[in-house]
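Usage example:
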Amino acid sequence: MKPVDQVRNSLGFLEDPTHEHAFDTLIWGLRERRDAAAREVPEWEDLRTLASRIKEHTLSHLADYLEQFEQRATANGARVHWARDAHEHNQIVYDILAAHGAKTLVKSKSMLTEECEMRPFMERRGITVTETDLGERIQQLDHQPPSHIVGPAFQKTTKDIAEEFHRVYGSDPDRADAVYLAHVMREHTRPLILAADAGMTGANFAVAETGAVVTVTNEGNADLSGNVPTLRICSVGIEKVIPGLAELAVFVRLLTRSATGERITQYTSHFAGPRVGAEMHVVLVDNGRTGRLADDRFWPSLKCIRCAACMNTCPVYRRSGGLSYGATYMGPIGLITMPSADVRRYRELPFSSTINGSCSNVCPVQIDIHEQIYAWREVMDDTGGFSATKKAAMKLAGALLSHPGAFRAAAEAGGTALRVLPHFAVYNRLNAWGRHRDVPEAPKETFHQWYARNRGKDGHDGRS
Amino acid sequence: MIPCYIDMFYPEVGVATLELLEKLGVEVDYPFDQTCCGQPMANSGAHKEAKATEELFIRNFARYDHIVAPSGSCVHHLRNKFTAAGDTPERGHVSAHVHDLPEFLCDVLQVEEFPWAEFPHQVTLHVSCSALRGLYEQAMSERPNDPWFSKPRSLLEKVKGLTLADFDRPDECCGFGGTFAVTDEAVSAAMGNDKLERLGATGARYVVSGDMSCLMHLQGCAHRDRDDFHFLHLAQVLNGGAG
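Running the assembly step on the lines above writes:
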């Protein structure tokens, strides 16, 4: 597959100032609410450290906690499955559905099923999959992937959604109000939930101590999808396991505040086992996670609890729109996790950042995101991810800047100064700077020349 | 140490830095063979291409007590990312003794006043991401429970006649980002224009920063339709005569 060109993909979004501005305003608002919520907790920074350590501990004892989880969940009456990769996950889920003759599946949010591209897999096999969360459903009806991992349809305005629902459901196209639109969605989705053969959820956490899958939501669709049908399937990435309920308390405090600035969400649901007369299946999915865990440099991204705070604070994400990344995980966390999944396809992503460091500061589990972006750039060079022009430009800049004589000659050749400045030498695309900005005027003399004239080479000539 | 882009485009900032340090009684030397700190290559992932430049930097600077640069970005690289050259005591000395100008003035010289400086204008202070999150010259908005402090701001507060104007989203990146400014120019310029919008909303027309690279980017954005802005390096204000 061709590498994703995030820069090119973002151009269309940027050319539409209404949406770009709305997206930026909405998502920056989440960052502000997050700041306010963090300010309310005096021990916030200690909580982040604690959460990071719990994740480090769990990840370094992952096999033990996963086995404990399996044992407890099984004792609770659930059936636990292990999937090595996306295909195995999809096949396991399909086999469970097929064994029950299930044709309709309702599901609530699960980034993991997006990662596994489960929906098309099921649809090709005659299973109807219905997203029950508002944002996911909006995107599904529009045949688009999520643009944000917490608010999948954040790139759309309420006006866009009113028009979409009018097109699909025949609702009032002029009522661009969130409450009305949520009602429209609910009216059309509730009957599908009631009639579904099976229900599916993702997981925010898998608690080893209790064997429960925990979801943290506001709309309550995980509870409906998970509890109404008699067949429940939970897809869980293996890095979601945590030791116990005491640790869960730390993460819940951080997760909701980091994501939306809420002290707690409407629902924190523990799916510990099947209800009477029902079945519960848990699919534990690796899909590249153990490989990443073994990677000395990039394993910390497995600490991620999917709060999206890094995306919310990222000025590049907010201005380029989430769909431009062509990835399940977008924004800063996507920059450092997607190349782990497919280094060729996502080789350009680590460059979609100013490495300003805000993402690492808001991360509730202290992933050094911006340092990892920086480190990925080096990997891309080592693995031949650079184009020939970029390689040549870097070689030239490196040669020029390590030879004072050559550098001086170039720097003092008047109008050519711009050409040698390494910031601009990359790709030799001078006009890229000039498209939206003016180029600084070269002064009459460089500092170096001024110094030689006023202070002399030894620093004392020419002074009165 | 005079960063390559200041040498070539903003010699007056280099002069202001030199004069300011001399006024403060510092014995200043300008190593003649200096070029660049290596950041542009390293920041692009090209560590191998940064090696010779970083080695040259070490040869030029390892013998000094303090290395001072009017650039948070270069200092952040030299202190925290200076790994392309081999790990020698000389390299360690450079990283441990390099200071951004505000750090040197606040922490080493502990300057109390700039009697020669007067700037009867309202200004906005842009603290670069390198100075803010790389060098921790100011408390960061992402950590709202940390005590407030700001080295560059405390310096500007010592300038007669100068008033500081606060603006929305002060910690948001201006969009320069080194090579990012060229590789992702559309998003970069959008960020620059948003920053100018917020700086301009204060009514202040003087933008002051310890990082000329951010200002070069903002100035480039401003020239298009906001030519009433003035961009000054902190050194120029502290050295006096800029207003």
